[in-house]
Amino acid sequence: MDKEQIFGQATVMDNGANYLPVELWRICLGFLGVQDICRFEMVSRCCKRIAGDKDFWKRYYCSAWRKNLHLPFTLPTPEWKAMCLDRRSHSQGHFLSTGFRGKRVRWGGPHVAYTGFEGTEELVYRVRSSIRSEDPLVPLVSASAFRGACTVYYEATIQGGGSVGIAAADDGLHAFVRHRHRYGFLSRSRPVGSLPVSYGFHGGDGRIHFHEGSAGATGSLAFDEPFGAASDATTLVGCGYDAARGLLFFTRNGRLLGVCPRGIRCLGYCAAVSLTHPGGSATFNFGSAPFAFDLELFCAQRARFLQNCENNKNENNDENNDENNDKNNDKNNRTESGGRSHSRDYVVVLFKKLPALLLVLGVLVMQYTSLFFVIYNSIAGLL
């Protein structure tokens, strides 16, 4: 396309923008992708004004990723645009490693599906089929926009029994064998949470199992009722991690189960899922499609809660400082008043004892005077 055609399209677009209502343009833009809207902004100043409205990107985000649910907070326009671009980037291709035979599954688009126990090897040995993302989970801008939160989150729809969690990205091996050392290749019958360093929510017992790399850093925590006991049961489980505070939380069918009562190590973590039933499957959503769980509302409420805690802490510190200052002032006042009272007592005692002191002083003067005359007369007689 030459320069004249480009400028010709820009002129037609500019003229069209002048004749069509702005709201109609924004409705039409809602059917386009994020990149197409960004290209539309670069056509002319009028197009930039239409797509740069402060509420356009918010409405677009809520329509594409929140099922038109309203958000009880406001953000600047660049933040909403960045959130849309970030959620779109999560639809780019990434690799998931099954662990078995070095097979990798590529996911692109809103979801990726992986079915375990496909070959005879898995069925013969009855081993658990595990899958893990090769790259660490990236914090979502939609969660990081609130008070510096650094939250990663993904959801997995489990068909049959399974375990959902996170596993450390750095296994300490060399690069040429690291691609085969994904969670599952050496795990065999060990689900997520059984090998270092990993944390997994197990559907068989509804508990969080964890392994933090040392013998004493293993165990399980009571969390929720079991899910996926039957092979045909389908459950949507979400796993989130706040890297800034070391908080791990899980969701089930869009409902928050709770925050893990144990703080986890601050590392780079990958998504990890283990399947426990033949024919079981897992469908992943890393953010390109709408989450069943309202992650933005959760992050906003938690940020507001932490802000209130910090404000209360500052108020308590101010009250303690004021109380300490009052105590110090009272102590100083008592010290000063005590010093003045002692001084007054000394003056009163001095005045009471003054006659006696003068009498003693006079007697001493008379004695020393008489002694002086005696010595003087003795010396004069000798001369």
Automatic annotation (TrEMBL):
The chain crosses the membrane at residues 354-376. Keywords: Membrane, Transmembrane, Transmembrane helix. It comes from the Eukaryota. InterPro entries: B30.2/SPRY_sf, ConA-like_dom_sf, F-box-like_dom_sf, F-box_dom, Gid1/RanBPM/SPLA_SPRY, SPRY_dom. The keyword Transmembrane applies. Residues 20-60 form the F-box domain. Coiled coil: none annotated. It holds the Pfam family F-box. Residues 311-340 are annotated as: Disordered. Gene3D superfamilies: 1.20.1280.50, 2.60.120.920. Residues 324-340 have a biased composition (Basic and acidic residues). This is F-box domain-containing protein.
